[in-house]
């Protein structure tokens, strides 16, 4: 259900951004923790609230593609085609940094990630604000992204100055990030726009493997992780794995794929995974949070077929299952302007 904020809420959010505060912004993918992209102090607060290393770049959100020229140094033809086709939408383009973008927002990189979100409330806010809003997902570093305003409130509480409630996010996984700085666009993170859709627009295959030397912090082995440990097995192994873990004393949560819907499973809690990948993506982070809230300490799941939106879902599940000790990266120094 879409929630329509009052005009006064948009006004209040704009006021908070102008005053250097932080606003939780609904987008079609996940909620963002937004700050005025041109205010290095506000941007620094985003990193602090998230507990995110300052070298990890943020995405700058714009009201429409016509503003692109203000924020990036140049727009290769392929980037123009992608922006023209997918914006507003769940696609982020990495391009050469324009002078309007402070190095604080890009983690010191000479490239910048930009996108126009397809959410009426985000677009209303961005138009009223007039500038760029730098926003990572509104969760603590490494944990599950929020897809409702309640998720944001539960996770960040008073650390965010204003939560703009736009209802639950429709896509449910983050944007697809494409490095469009060169002649051959390259997917840095799978997301709401599928490789198949990108290829249809570009008229050539797109690499889904990061071959570029650009640092991609979302690629940390553990990311998008619930409190419970996540174990990935083949679908036909789910029931046995869950039972064995229950018997070892775990509170087991299970992601039950449609192919196992009739299989009896001994577990503390189970989520029936929707057949449609769009529904699965929309529900994914909520399911992980739900199993956490039900007290599960171990989640047994399997990855879907890695095509279409299944690629992004599989990517998030694999990272959720990644080794946890890499959560706190070694401190790095970065030269700021
Ligand atoms: O759907 C989304 O993309 C959401 C909503 C709020 O827009 N945002 C989001 O932001 O997922 P975040 O910060 O959680 O992930 C952004 C990722 C970074 O982790 C990094 O991998 C990549 O964007 N990124 C940002 N700037 C980059 C750059 N200049 N070069 C390469 N990757 C970059
Ligand atoms: Mg994130």
Automatic annotation (TrEMBL):
Which SUPFAM superfamilies is this protein grouped with? YrdC/RibB
What is the protein name stated in its UniProt record?
Threonylcarbamoyl-AMP synthase
Q: Where in the cell is it found?
A: Cytoplasm
Show where the YrdC-like domain sits: 7-193
**Could you say which enzyme class this protein belongs to?**
transferase
Q: Which organism is it from?
A: Amycolatopsis plumensis
What the protein does comes down to: Required for the formation of a threonylcarbamoyl group on adenosine at position 37 (t(6)A37) in tRNAs that read codons beginning with adenine.
Gene Ontology MF annotations? L-threonylcarbamoyladenylate synthase
Query: What NCBIfam families does the annotation carry?
Result: L-threonylcarbamoyladenylate synthase
Q: What is its main location?
A: cytoplasm
